[in-house]
Each structure stands twice: as structure tokens, then as C-alpha cells.
Design a protein that fits this description.
By secondary structure, the chain is an alpha/beta fold. The protein has 16 helices and 7 strands.
Length: about 350
């Protein structure tokens, strides 16, 4: 399943080397949608009722789709067709073969863009599911397939700096990466926070204080800070952060999962440091997603100050709390508060 990188795709689009078939997917949904729309604009005006056709992949009529593909463009170089959220797993074997046959014989004047913004063709795994893979492989042989993965905070910082400057304000690359971390590298969340921050800054530089005051922290971000407060025995801060997590209306099990994940990051980093293992090896060994790689770096930075025996005790307390949450009728918040107090009190 040969695919092209986003950089390669950009080069082709800039040089106007258009393919007859495109397939865009990945966890960076905002980029998937942006590239699909950008490509359409390069090919035809969106209000061109003769040369631009949209299909909803969830209820696509394959006969109508095949008919549309064969049409000739009117007063335009290209006929452009978009198919949003097409899941091949919904097709019968006959319909799948029919779709593959259609895609293998697309006229030179037709450009078809498949892009997914609300379905996961990988079904939570690394590679597309069986039927989706057949579609992707078919398109890859004829056209261009590009997966838009979640970028790291450092990779996103340049993009954030540019977006902020377009809105008339400024921000350092360090603070830009900090925004990405708080938003867990989610471009949709980042876009909203940039709009909020630039409106507040009114042309001046956006500071870390501005970010701390205005940016909505995600559950995992608060959980990371909470774990740091616990292992440094800062009971007041730990309970305040727990309160903030509940203020975000997070479910107790989700809060516990996020806290436990942060403690596991610290525990893995502690063991890796003792054995001389590099952070990148930990990322690879435990299959960390791109938007959580920074958590490994931070864990390596902070774990040297932490007693590994205390980490083990905390993880045991969290495991016991998980069992209690799933079996007890006691309020989840009370169980979590009890766990935090126990962990903060378990000083060696």
C-alpha cells in the first residue's frame, strides 16, 4: 500500500500535477478536510453545478456514482467529484468489486477525491480494514493516497506561530508548542484556542500566562500535572487539579484512566533511565501516539526526582481504585479523592 507524505502531496499540488484519484484519511481530521477542499478549489469553483459533484459515502448510489464519473466537464478542464466518509466495509462483495472496477477506469478529465472525517477506516488499528485496504490499494496504484497523522507539539508550533501572526498577534515557538500540548495536538481544538487568544491579545505577544488563563486544558493534560503534584506530595494542588477535572465533566473512570496513564509514563521512564534506554525506544516499544510523545519526554525529565517505590505504591492504589469504581456503589469522586490523599500520604 504505497502512500505519499504530506510534503510530497504539497509539491505535486503546487506544481499542478493532478491525479485522477485521491484518498485522504487519518486522525488529523482538520487537515484531511482542508486538503480535500483546497484540492477542489484548485480544480473547479465549488459553486460550479456542472463540474463539481458531492457524494456522501454512507449512502452512496454506486450506479449514479459511475454515471457521474463518465460525464464530460463543461467549460472546464476537470470534472471534480468528492466522496466523504466512504466505508468499504459496508459494501457487499459484489458492490466492492463494482466499485473497484469503476475506480480502475476513471476518465482523464475526471478527478475523484475520497476523504474521511467521521469514520476510521482502520477501526482503531494501524492499517485499514480488509475491504478498505482493497480500495486504498487500488487508488494508490492509479492516484495518490495520503494519511494525515497527528503531529507532535514541536511540529505544530511553526503552524501555530504562523496562524497567530496572520491574526495580527505574535507568540514564541515555545508557547506555541505549549498550546499544542494542552490541546493534545488536535488541530480543531488548537484553531479555536488561537481565535480566543488572538482576540484577547489584540495585537500583542501571547504569553504563557494568557495561555494558562484562557486555554481549555484537556483531561490528559490536567492528569499529567496532577500526577506530578502527587509524586511531589503537593496535596493541595493535586486536589485542586482533580476538582478541575471534574469541572470538565469528565467521568470518574475516564479521569482515573488518564491519571493512571500519566503514572505509567513516569514508571516506564524511571525504569528506562535505570537501564539506559532512550525515550524514543520507550515510544516505539509501547506504541505511543504522536500526540503523546511529549508525555514521554516530560516523564524522562521528571522521573529522576521521584522515588520508584512510591510510584509502585501509587500504581497499586490506582489499580485498587479502578476495581472499586467498577464494583462499588460509592460515588466515583469520593473514591478518587481518597486515592489522591492515600498517594500523597504514602511518603517513604
Amino acid at each position: 500500500m504505497p502512500q505519499m507524505s504530506v510534503t510530497e502531496l504539497n509539491k505535486k499540488l503546487k506544481s499542478k500535477e493532478y491525479s485522477s484519484l485521491y484518498y485522504f484519511y487519518g486522525k488529523d481530521i482538520m487537515s484531511v478536510e482542508l486538503y480535500a477542499k483546497t484540492l477542489v478549489k484548485k480544480l473547479v469553483p465549488e459553486d460550479d453545478i456542472y463540474n463539481f459533484h458531492k457524494f456522501n459515502g454512507k449512502d452512496i448510489d454506486l450506479s449514479e456514482f459511475a454515471e457521474t464519473i463518465e460525464a464530460l466537464p463543461m467549460f472546464s478542464e476537470y470534472l471534480c467529484i468528492t466522496v466523504n466518509d466512504f466505508n468499504a466495509e459496508d459494501l457487499s462483495a459484489d458492490d466492492l468489486n463494482f466499485m473497484l472496477k469503476i475506480l480502475k477506469d476513471v476518465p482523464e478529465t475526471t478527478v475523484i477525491i475520497f476523504y474521511n472525517t467521521a469514520i476510521d477506516i482502520c477501526d482503531g488499528k494501524k492499517s485499514p480494514t480488509t475491504k478498505n485496504k482493497k480500495i486504498v490499494d487500488c487508488i494508490a496504484k492509479i492516484g495518490d493516497v495520503c494519511e494525515f497523522k497527528i503531529k507532535t507539539p514541536v511540529e505544530l508550533s511553526k503552524q501555530i506561530v504562523a496562524s497567530v501572526e496572520k491574526k495580527g498577534a505574535t507568540i514564541s515557538s515555545t508557547n506555541a508548542a505549549y498550546i499544542a500540548e494542552l490541546c493534545l495536538s488536535d488541530n480543531m481544538l488548537i484553531s479555536g484556542e488561537i481565535a480566543k487568544l488572538t482576540s484577547y491579545a489584540q495585537g500583542r505577544e501571547i504569553t504563557k500566562d494568557d495561555i494558562d488563563s484562557l486555554v481549555s486544558r484537556q483531561v490528559n493534560s490536567n492528569a499529567f500535572d496532577l500526577s506530578k503534584a502527587v509524586v511531589t506530595f503537593n496535596k493541595k494542588k493535586a486536589l485542586l487539579l482533580l476538582d478541575e477535572l471534574f469541572y470538565q465533566r469528565a467521568e470518574p473512570i475516564a479521569v482515573l484512566a488518564a491519571i493512571s496513564m500519566s503514572f505509567m509514563d513516569l514508571y516506564r521512564a524511571s525504569l528506562a533511565v535505570v537501564r539506559g534506554i532512550h525515550p524514543s525506544d520507550v515510544v516505539a516499544d509501547f506504541s505511543y501516539k504522536a500526540n503523546r510523545k511529549f508525555a514521554v519526554d516530560y516523564a524522562f525529565r521528571d522521573c529522576r526526582k521521584i522515588n520508584i517505590k512510591h510510584l509502585r505504591k501509587c500504581i497499586k492504589i490506582l489499580a485498587d481504585t479502578d476495581a472499586a469504581l467498577k464494583s462499588s456503589k460509592t460515588d466515583g469522586r469520593i473514591l478518587l479523592e481518597k486515592a489522591i490523599v492515600q498517594m500523597v500520604s504514602e511518603k517513604d
